[in-house]
Fold:
Amino acid sequence: QVQLVESGGGSVQAGSSLTLSCVASGRTYTTPTMAWFRQAPGKGREFVGGIRWDGATTYADSVKERFTICRDNAKNTMYLQMNTVEVENTTVYSCAARTEALMALDIARYDYWGQGTQVTVSI
Structure:
């Protein structure tokens, strides 16, 4: 089993930066691929971006110019650096991990999920 805990969410002003963290514990060696998803009220989870064990990243087109994902394998932590945030980025962000080495955009392909952290962007 793998446990995921997100942190770093909060209320920020549009145009500022925010970094989310996702700390994994347990059998982390079984989850080479991690990703961030977000879910707005009344909508399904949306792929934000992900990172493989080797550092290769994939981003949704809507965020690739402003968001950066990295991971510190020694700390079992994945980060989501959000720059120039927009009001539209307001939602709950969750991290996920899967036991396969290939990146996936489909929520059904992820085996473990965190509880999520709320990001609220105001003007």
